[in-house]
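Study this one:
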Amino acid sequence: MTEHTELKIRTRAYALWQEHGCKEGQDMDFWLLAEREILGAAATPETLPKAPAKAAAKPKAVAKPKAAAKPKAPAKPKPAAK
């Protein structure tokens, strides 16, 4: 591998690391992915790190199920007028 190729891989791996939130411990994953991109080998979906959502959406409020409507009580008869 030439110094030029290694520099391109290093630069791409760093960019991938930044795009994925600068998470520690995935340096080899990003290096190998960048190497495949630069050298032209196909990357398989299992080897691709998952990118975090760019803007975390607020969780949607879960609608509470409506309680079953209670049947109305029968109307009480009005007292007779005197």
About this structure: The chain has a mean pLDDT of 76. The two ends are 110 Å apart (CA to CA). The helical segments are 3-19, 27-39. The chain has two helices and no strands.
